[in-house]
Amino acid sequence: MEPVVPSRSRVSRQVRRLDRIVGSSAAAAVVGVVVFGFIVALAVAGFPDSWQFAFSTVASAITLVMVFVLHHAQRREQAATQLKLDEIVRAIPQADDHYVHLQAAQDEELRELEERHIEQHQAARAD
Q1: For residue 3, which phi and psi values (nearest 5 degrees)?
Q2: How many Å apart are CA 115 and CA 124, to the nearest integer?
Q3: Rg of the chain, C-alpha, whole Å
Q4: 10-residue block means of pLDDT along the chain (127 residues)?
Q5: What pLDDT, on the 0 to 100 scale, is given for residue 36?
Q6: Please, are residues 111 and 102 in contact by the beta-carbon 8 Å criterion?
Q7: CB 12 within 8 Å of CB 72
Q8: Is residue 96 within a helix (H) or strand (E), and if so which, with residue range?
Q9: Model pTM?
């Protein structure tokens, strides 16, 4: 039986598809060949300023798009991992449930929990 996957927005599906495509080693090889080919073409053509400007503009636009693609993919992965960890914490009866929603905690609460965790860890090592 396949797991139930909630529907995602069309944009999210397209961004995930783009992430899978550009995250492959084949895509890196294609980019390397294209850049190398463009550098050779620039050298043969005498490094015209208009070509350099066009290459710079296209590279900047692609970089900007990829920043958003990567951010989207990482945010989804972090949310999925956090939900899985939260479920594990909830499933263990002796677990401290203060850790379940730490990502939304105030800085002061994070410091207090971290200090308590370090103290417990040091006490366990001392035994």
Answers
A1: -65, 150
A2: 14
A3: 24
A4: 60 86 86 91 91 91 91 89 87 79 82 87 85
A5: 93
A6: no
A7: yes
A8: none
A9: 0.60
- B/e letters for 21-31, b = 16+ CB within 10 Å, e = fewer, are ebeeeeeeeee
Instruction: Please give the structure tokens belonging to residue 11.
Output: 């944009």
3-state secondary structure of 101: coil
Residue 90, both tokens: 């909830």
Its sign, for the CA torsion 112, 118, 121, 126, is: negative
Q: Which residues contact 22 (CB under 8 A, 6 or more apart)?
A: 66, 69
What is residue 95's DSSP assignment?
S
Continuous segment of H or E residues that includes residue 52: helix 49-91
Please identify which residue in the block is written with the tokens 């971290």.
114
What is the DSSP track for 6-51? ----HHHHHHHHHHHHHTSHHHHHHHHHHHHHHHHHHHHHT--HHH
